[in-house]
Specification:
By secondary structure, the protein is an alpha/beta fold. Helix 6 packs parallel to helix 7. The strands form two sheets. Strands 3-2-4-1-5-8-9 form a seven-stranded mixed β-sheet. It is built from seven helices and nine strands, in the order βαβααβααβαβββαββ. It has a single domain, classed as Fructose Permease (3-Layer(aba) Sandwich), CATH 3.40.35.
């Protein structure tokens, strides 16, 4: 089963050093419309990926078709979304998931800090309410060693 995470930093050291070993993922699927068309940023992020781990950059609308063509990717993938909006859009397009890890959402004016590493806008809250109402459990952990904080369903 895929591990699904929202982290506005996407691929970075914490993902490589803690989440890859924790999930045993052999593939990272970065799902974000802007990044799917930004080949320079893709190249930069790809430099950090260890040998033997595949990375794909997909627009949100392509996630379900991609997984349909590559069903084994869903088994052991770490799926990264940059925002709650992207996670909700993928869910609405047919990507079903039961758990969503909220790893990092930076504070900005107008956002409410809900834990040390997550600040939510009204839009984020609406997306998370939608997912929770559809049975998705929300896991607020920055790294795997943090205490499990589940909210919802």
């Amino acid at each position: 089963m895929a591990f699904v995470r929202v982290d506005n930093r996407l691929v970075h050291g914490q993902i490589i050093e803690t989440w890859l070993p924790f999930t045993h993922a052999r593939a990272i699927l970065v799902v974000n419309d802007a990044l799917a068309g930004d080949f320079l940023r893709q190249e930069i992020m790809s430099l950090a990926i260890p040998a033997g781990v595949r990375i794909e950059f997909l627009p949100v609308a392509e996630l379900v078709p991609f997984l349909g063509r590559n069903p084994l990717e869903a088994e052991g993938a770490l799926i990264l979304f940059a925002s709650c909006r992207d996670a909700r859009a993928a869910y609405e397009k047919g990507f079903g998931f039961g758990n969503l890890n909220l790893g990092n959402l930076h504070y900005a004016p107008g956002k409410k800090q809900v834990c040390p590493h997550v600040a939510l806008s009204k839009e984020d809250e609406s997306c998370l309410d939608f997912l929770r109402d559809n049975g998705v459990r929300l896991d607020y952990r920055c790294v795997p060693s943090d205490p499990l904080q589940l909210r919802g369903a």
